[in-house]
Amino acid sequence: MIDFKNVTKEYGKDTAAVKNVSLHISAGEFVTIVGQSGTGKTTLAKLMIAEERPTRGSIVIGGWDITHIRHYEIPVLRRQMGVIYQDFKLLQKKKVFENVAFASEVSGTPSKKIHKIVPQVLKIVGLEKQVDKFPRQLSGGEQQRVAIARSLVHRPKIILADEPTGNLDSINAQDIINLLLKINKFGTTVVLVTHNHDIVNSLRKRVITMDHGMIISDQKHGKYIL
């Protein structure tokens, strides 16, 4: 599903955020990428969605070599990968339904299909009764659920969650992790980037630890070791 082969990402001559990383993530896995700030985990995530390009090495996502992906192909890749961020990135002047529908609208999905899919994904995240509310009327946990619903509208094969609990208290954070586990049980590959020790240790899923741009540990049922 996800293959990195000897990938290096340099910013300038003397700064390498990712150094010679080789990594394989199989379809249906739940993988956590951990490391302290500045260890390269966010850069690794950006490489997965072609927000950054590797300086050297190759990246294959779902059988598609994206190492030299063309700019106009990136939206096609993003429709196969749902991305969830720490800061939600919701449109404040649009209601819940409109926020979730927006990603489909800009990609040209027919209105009839949008009105069928959006209620389905809102039900998955438990927000089917909040469709007419604006983001400011929701809690932080609910806003992140909207963001997760939005990431599901294209029925992606991969969910990349970059610090999705960073702005949440421990109860809401656990709710979001439980939701990601639920999505994973549907067969969706989940890649979680986090520095939350408690979440990582409670999951007991595969843990990839990064330090100074390199993978220093890859545990099948791991813990946060830094």
From TrEMBL:
Gene3D superfamilies: P-loop containing nucleotide triphosphate hydrolases. GO terms for biological process: cell division. It is found in: Cell membrane. It holds the Pfam family ABC_tran. Keywords: ATP-binding, Cell cycle, Cell division, Cell membrane, Membrane, Nucleotide-binding. One of its GO terms (molecular function) is ATP binding. The keyword ATP-binding applies. It is a peripheral membrane protein. One of its GO terms (cellular component) is plasma membrane. The keyword Repeat does not apply. Its main location: membrane. InterPro entries: AAA+_ATPase, ABC_transporter-like_ATP-bd, ABC_transporter-like_CS, ABC_transpr_LolD-like, Cell_div_FtsE, P-loop_NTPase. Residues 2-226 form the ABC transporter domain. PROSITE patterns: ABC_TRANSPORTER_1, ABC_TRANSPORTER_2. Part of the ABC transporter FtsEX involved in cellular division. Belongs to the ABC transporter superfamily. Homodimer. Forms a membrane-associated complex with FtsX. This is Cell division ATP-binding protein FtsE. The gene is ftsE.
